[in-house]
Inverse folding.
């Protein structure tokens, strides 16, 4: 990696996404990037399909931008401003609210004792603190970056991509290769391992021709093929990459998926089951997908402004219930406080059972705040999951990881680097529990899609992964 002056960097920290793809067979998979912390990176890929593949790298943020994002994130809670509306009959009063308010004025403090969380509002002139009814949010005026940092984070500058083949490769399936840059030797040198034999490729600048010689790399770069004959079960470690696309269809790299894309197969899987979806609007897309796909599934009421949603199929006794998570919620719409309970509280209210599944998906609205808030929220959810499965061991719980979002998003609040950190935190917090993981991030990177609300095709494959775990015996 080189700096803005074209000089080789002696340190790492760049945020890079990697993928391989074969457009002719509509196949793609993500790669893993290993930071050697000296300006060099190993980019490792698993080849899941035969044919010619192209490797693409996306530099989302250089290390200098990553440092600025981390500093800005951790410096406070005031990047988003909230206005609370207090209501008593026909009387309304508005007041400033947030997680941490520093003021000499009297504060209303709203505490979740179990989750060890709280947020505050300036006490309104005459109404009681308990009359807080809804919120609106807005971006705080001013910049959290210097002029130089703002330039660094502009979408036109921070995002550079090698969309053409780094090295065209003709491969057999179930093999691995890695791409490594060695700036100490040559700016044009690349190492490639393929078919279980690692070779060194020296490529001339502006040339597609490479000469191959034997090279030696750690054995961890080799082997490890995928096993799609295994049934999907919660509790198994979700590998990286978690799967791949082939002919526009997502296949898990560790277990058998792809059986629950049609309305009939979905209905058979969900018959007699209750599905609780708790989290943000990317999880709400699941109930919307199921309502569109299953002809007999209907909403019980018209959902308005992120209010709770319930869809049922009375003939097959299927129930799908979505509620948004508690504050923070960042949106231009007014949010009713009662519509967003803490997920930990919701889990404590669920009876559970063999025909009950819970899906939890949070993160997008917490990217704008210090990481401690997100981790505390995860730990609270973890304890609630443990209480749920202790009283009802047959209940199945799933964690939906965050997906990528628009590269034009407000970087200080919504950078995908924040989402990457939060996904790492989720794997760490929930990794030893018997939960299923739906790796929405990996799917988005493989598909090269950067939208907060993925397409209906992507959502269908996310739901398929869920159902493949839920109904693996069918």
């Amino acid at each position: 990696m080189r700096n803005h002056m074209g000089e080789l960097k002696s340190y790492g920290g760049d945020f890079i996404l990697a993928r391989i793809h074969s457009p002719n067979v509509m196949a793609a998979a993500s790669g893993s990037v290993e930071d050697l912390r000296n300006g060099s990176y190993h980019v490792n890929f698993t080849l899941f399909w035969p044919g010619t593949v192209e490797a693409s790298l996306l530099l989302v943020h250089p290390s200098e931008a990553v440092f600025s994002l981390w500093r800005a994130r951790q410096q406070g809670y005031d990047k988003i401003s909230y206005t609370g509306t207090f209501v008593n009959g026909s009387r309304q009063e508005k007041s400033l609210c947030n997680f941490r308010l520093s003021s000499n004025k009297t504060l209303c403090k709203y505490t979740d004792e179990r989750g060890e969380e709280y947020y505050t509002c300036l006490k309104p002139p005459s109404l009681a603190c308990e009359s807080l009814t809804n919120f609106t949010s807005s971006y705080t005026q001013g910049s959290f970056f210097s002029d130089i940092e703002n330039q660094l984070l502009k979408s036109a500058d921070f995002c550079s991509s090698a969309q053409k083949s780094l090295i065209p490769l003709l491969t057999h399936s179930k093999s691995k290769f890695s791409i490594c840059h060695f700036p100490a030797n040559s700016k044009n040198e690349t190492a490639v391992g393929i078919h279980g034999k690692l070779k060194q490729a020296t490529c001339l600048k502006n040339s597609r021709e490479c000469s191959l010689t034997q090279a030696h790399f750690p054995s961890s770069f080799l082997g490890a093929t995928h096993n799609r004959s295994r049934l999907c079960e919660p509790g198994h470690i979700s590998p990286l990459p978690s799967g791949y696309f082939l002919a526009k269809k997502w296949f898990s790299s560790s277990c058998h998926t792809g059986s629950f894309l049609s309305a009939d197969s979905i209905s058979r899987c969900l018959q007699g089951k209750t599905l609780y979806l708790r989290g943000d609007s990317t999880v709400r897309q699941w109930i919307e997908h199921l309502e569109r796909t299953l002809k007999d599934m209907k909403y019980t009421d018209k959902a308005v402004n992120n209010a709770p949603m319930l869809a049922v199929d009375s003939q097959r006794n299927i129930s799908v219930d979505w509620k948004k998570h508690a504050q923070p919620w960042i949106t231009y719409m007014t949010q009713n406080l009662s519509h967003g309970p803490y997920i930990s509280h919701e889990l404590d209210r669920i009876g559970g059972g063999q025909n009950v599944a819970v899906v939890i998906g949070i993160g997008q609205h917490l990217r704008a705040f210090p990481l401690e808030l997100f981790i505390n929220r995860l730990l609270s959810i973890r304890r609630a999951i443990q209480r749920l499965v202790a009283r009802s061991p047959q209940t199945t719980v799933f964690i939906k990881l965050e997906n990528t979002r628009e590269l034009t998003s407000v970087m200080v609040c919504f950078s995908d680097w924040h989402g990457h950190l939060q996904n790492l935190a989720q794997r760490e917090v929930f990794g030893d529990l018997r939960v299923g993981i739906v790796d929405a991030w990996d799917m988005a990177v493989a598909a090269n899609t950067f939208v907060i609300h993925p397409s209906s095709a992507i959502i269908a494959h996310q739901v398929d992964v869920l159902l493949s775990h839920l109904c693996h015996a069918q």
Residues 371-391 form the longest helix (21 residues). The chain has a mean pLDDT of 85. Residues 402 and 466 are 15 Å apart (CA to CA).
